[in-house]
Amino acid sequence: MTIIPIFKKCPVCGKKYVWNPDIGKIICPYCNGLGKPKRQKINKFGFIWGVTVMKILNFGSCNIDFVYNLDHIVAIGETETSNSMQVFPGGKGLNQSVALAKAGMEVYHAGCIGTDGEMLADVLESNGVDISNIKKVDEKQDTLLFK
Question: What is the pTM of this model?
């Protein structure tokens, strides 16, 4: 069974939201039909599900992923030069926080990042995650793990 979201526009505040026909009522989750915001912080992606939104505190890892492009898989004892290297934000915690924020949840991420991890905080913040619980420490990550 495919669920097709029904988008409604509030006649009072003009915000767009997803309406669940099973609930039966069309009440704007932003303003309750009163024209004033129901909560302080509204997700920048333009809509949330038409139900009460809970706050989520995520304690999770934030990593900088280095991806190397090689001509072939390296054999034991072989040294290979990479063709290119790409850097991506990652880590299970960061990915969860971003996904939840994009789904309309109010997300707070907690943890520590080093001096080289400013990019991670920027990614979280630009995706609507509150980073006030992230501590910036004066250390640089120097451990690399290859599997």
Answer: 0.58
